[in-house]
Amino acid sequence: MAQQLPPGLLAVRDGRSVWVHYRGETWRVERVAERPAGAPEEEHDLTAPMPGRVVKVLVSEGDQVTKGTALLLLEAMKMEHEIRAPRDGAVTRVFRAAGEMVAMGDPLVEIG
What we know:
Blueprint: E1 10-14, E2 17-22, E3 25-30, E4 52-57, E5 64-65, E6 70-76, E7 79-84, E8 89-94, E9 101-102, E10 109-111
Antiparallel strand pairs: 1-2, 2-3, 4-6, 4-9, 5-8, 6-7, 8-10
């Protein structure tokens, strides 16, 4: 589920960092602690890192993927961003189709 942001607030996730812009100021917030080895992936690992448009879906349900496999292309901030698999597994669900608009935090793909 996408979070509702106050008017004028922009937040963009970039890997381990989140860039926040509000009232003319910009901050970078970075995750400093990693998950322990063997810990389950976080629920939001395959969500839209920013608002945008799905350009192309590169996988289908049932496809086997390895960590780093490109799953879909997202156009945001006038750039194309590849959404990649955070781990090995099978694609259990594809939530979006090419041409759909997404908000930050919307689910994109589920890997079982």
